[in-house]
């Protein structure tokens, strides 16, 4: 060693390059790696936090799309129901105008007057309205149901065990579940042993209907 000009000697620099710390026994990391982990000033560089806001936004947009899809599906079903209802209402309005004609055809058939060309016309008309969904209901012996039957005549009878349609004055008509006209009937109820069997007219409409029927038969 050579003395310096100020008389001090240069001390040797000793670098410990051992990978194992002799005091703690742990593995030493290179200085470069330690520097990368530490921020300037000795502070550690913070890890980038998970982007929770992005995940929340994605979940919100997904929920919005699902809600829009459900609303659109409900809208389509509602439009389809409205379309069917409008169609049924229009068909019902038209067919309602044909009911008196169908009544005349039925009375003519009952009196044996539905013959020749008139019979073919009547059958064609009945087939046409049937294709549009018009059906008749009401038969002798049916249990009386006030939701589909209109009682024009009432009596008591020992031959029935419940209110029963014993005569069909006019058939009923329906389209699907829609009642265009209830069946107009004569109803009999069970008679008690001491109760007289009587026939009661429930309205002027019954007399009018039977009068029209007789007039049509006379013609």
Automatic annotation (TrEMBL):
<dbReference type="GO" id="GO:0051082">
    <property type="term" value="F:unfolded protein binding"/>
</dbReference>
<comment type="similarity">
    <text>Belongs to the GrpE family.</text>
</comment>
<dbReference type="InterPro" id="IPR009012">
    <property type="entry name" value="GrpE_head"/>
</dbReference>
<dbReference type="InterPro" id="IPR000740">
    <property type="entry name" value="GrpE"/>
</dbReference>
<dbReference type="GO" id="GO:0051087">
    <property type="term" value="F:protein-folding chaperone binding"/>
</dbReference>
<dbReference type="GO" id="GO:0042803">
    <property type="term" value="F:protein homodimerization activity"/>
</dbReference>
<feature type="region of interest" description="Disordered">
    <location>
        <begin position="1"/>
        <end position="62"/>
    </location>
</feature>
<protein>
    <recommendedName>
        <fullName>Protein GrpE</fullName>
    </recommendedName>
</protein>
<comment type="subunit">
    <text>Homodimer.</text>
</comment>
<feature type="region of interest" description="Disordered">
    <location>
        <begin position="190"/>
        <end position="219"/>
    </location>
</feature>
<keyword id="KW-0963">Cytoplasm</keyword>
<dbReference type="GO" id="GO:0000774">
    <property type="term" value="F:adenyl-nucleotide exchange factor activity"/>
</dbReference>
<feature type="compositionally biased region" description="Low complexity">
    <location>
        <begin position="37"/>
        <end position="46"/>
    </location>
</feature>
<dbReference type="Pfam" id="PF01025">
    <property type="entry name" value="GrpE"/>
</dbReference>
<feature type="compositionally biased region" description="Basic and acidic residues">
    <location>
        <begin position="12"/>
        <end position="22"/>
    </location>
</feature>
<keyword id="KW-0346">Stress response</keyword>
<dbReference type="InterPro" id="IPR013805">
    <property type="entry name" value="GrpE_CC"/>
</dbReference>
<feature type="compositionally biased region" description="Basic and acidic residues">
    <location>
        <begin position="207"/>
        <end position="219"/>
    </location>
</feature>
<comment type="function">
    <text>Participates actively in the response to hyperosmotic and heat shock by preventing the aggregation of stress-denatured proteins, in association with DnaK and GrpE. It is the nucleotide exchange factor for DnaK and may function as a thermosensor. Unfolded proteins bind initially to DnaJ; upon interaction with the DnaJ-bound protein, DnaK hydrolyzes its bound ATP, resulting in the formation of a stable complex. GrpE releases ADP from DnaK; ATP binding to DnaK triggers the release of the substrate protein, thus completing the reaction cycle.</text>
</comment>
<dbReference type="GO" id="GO:0005737">
    <property type="term" value="C:cytoplasm"/>
</dbReference>
<keyword id="KW-0143">Chaperone</keyword>
<dbReference type="GO" id="GO:0006457">
    <property type="term" value="P:protein folding"/>
</dbReference>
């Amino acid at each position: 060693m050579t003395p310096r000009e100020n008389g001090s000697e240069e001390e040797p620099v000793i670098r410990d390059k051992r990978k194992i710390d002799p005091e703690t026994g742990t593995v030493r990391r290179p200085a470069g790696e330690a520097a990368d982990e530490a921020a300037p000033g000795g502070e550690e560089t913070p890890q980038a936090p998970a982007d929770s806001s992005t995940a929340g936004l994605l979940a919100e947009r997904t929920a919005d799309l699902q809600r829009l899809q459900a609303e659109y599906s409900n809208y389509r079903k509602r439009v389809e129901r409205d379309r069917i209802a409008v169609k049924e209402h229009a068909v019902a309005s038209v067919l309602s105008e044909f009911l008196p004609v169908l009544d005349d055809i039925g009375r003519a058939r009952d009196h044996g007057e539905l013959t020749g060309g008139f019979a073919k016309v009547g059958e064609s008309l009945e087939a046409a309205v049937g294709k549009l969904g018009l059906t008749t209901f009401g038969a002798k012996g049916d249990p009386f149901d006030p939701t589909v039957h209109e009682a024009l005549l009432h009596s008591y009878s020992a031959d029935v065990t419940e209110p029963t349609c014993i005569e069909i004055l006019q058939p009923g008509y329906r389209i699907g579940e829609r009642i265009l006209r209830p069946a107009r009937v004569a109803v009999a109820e069970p008679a008690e042993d001491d109760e007289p069997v009587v026939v009661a007219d429930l309205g002027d409409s019954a007399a009018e209907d039977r009068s029209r029927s007789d007039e049509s038969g006379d013609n």
